[in-house]
Here is the input.
Amino acid sequence: MKLNLILSLLAFVTLVHCFSSVYTAYVYTQDQQQDATSKEVQILRGGRGVQTSNTREWDGWPAIAYEEVGHPLVTKGDSFFNHARELYFRKDGKSKKTLMDEFIQVYKNRPDPVNMCGIRINHALALFLAVKEIQPTLVVESGVNAGVSTYFIRAASPTTKIFAIDPLAEPICNQGKRWIDPSDKTTNLTGDKFVDLLDIDWKGMIQRGEIDVEKTLVFLDDHLHAFERIAGVMKFGFRHVVVEDNYKLEEGKLHTCYHNQLHLLPIII
Here is the structure.
């Protein structure tokens, strides 16, 4: 009971931080980009004095885009991530339990209690909620490491198919053996069986009706160029994408995201 209370408090505090750092992004067409109004502005940059920055503005877009990095991202639109606390603490009509109660039990039983180089509680909360709300028929997980994120995906949905993709056969950071989902609904494209996310025959599978892009969630945890990966999967029609990066500031390859504030980047289009 005491452990459940501690985990619940930890999860609640994490929700306050994690979901305040979640942003919804939208992709503009080329015509919309051409319609942007560009101008130079003067910015006071702490001890570095005044600098010039190129900016862009669009009609109907509630923010200014700056050319240089370091400016906070902004939200546009509304998704379930904006209502995370409400969804996690809403009581079921029959059992009177909450989604947080379910998550705490899942979290307590995670296969690696430390998971040094993998998903932590804040990202696990967001991923778990995404699977619960989107109810995807397929989750494509690019970047598996110790398999803990696979565990959370499976715990959130026992019926969802999973493509678990990783070039390595074993996890990094001396984390021992990878957790392997015992379900026959998971396809492990790891080690010798590795096929990169963008090299999979998505077009063929879509044409054969094997997958539904509208009901597919792509989870990018491979620490590659996030926006290139997003653009790559969107070409096939995928619209639900969650990007995670566990690296500290200036580490890893996710330099297109503002490390100080961006923990997850859900694209719900």
Summary: The first helix runs from residue 2 to 18.
